[in-house]
Structures are given as structure tokens and as C-alpha cells.
Design a protein that fits this description.
Layout (H helix, E strand, L loop, with lengths): L1 H38 L1 H10 L2
Length: 52
């Protein structure tokens, strides 16, 4: 029983780590777009249209 739980954790751990990395990257990209929108009205309009 212990091996099954250990094996499941080791299988899921890389997926959880990759998901966290992707979330952080998405947050950074959103921040960059919002900063760019302050300088470019076209970008600001596009961000509003997609709901960011």
C-alpha cells in the first residue's frame, strides 16, 4: 500500500511542478501586456476585448 502512494506522488510531482511554472509564466506575460498597453492604445483595446 505504501509503495502505491509513493509511486503516485512521484508520478504527479512533475506535473504539478510544470503546472506551477506555466501559471507563473502566464502571470508574467499578463503583466508585460498590461505594461505595454499603457504605451500602446491598440494593445489596450485588444486586452479589453479578450477580457484581461
Amino acid at each position: 500500500m505504501g509503495f502505491v502512494l509513493w509511486d503516485r506522488r512521484t508520478t504527479i510531482a512533475p506535473v504539478v511542478r510544470k503546472n506551477r511554472e506555466l501559471e507563473e509564466r502566464g502571470e508574467k506575460m499578463e503583466k508585460v501586456l498590461k505594461e505595454l498597453a499603457l504605451k500602446d492604445p491598440g494593445v489596450a483595446e485588444t486586452i479589453k476585448r479578450v477580457g484581461l
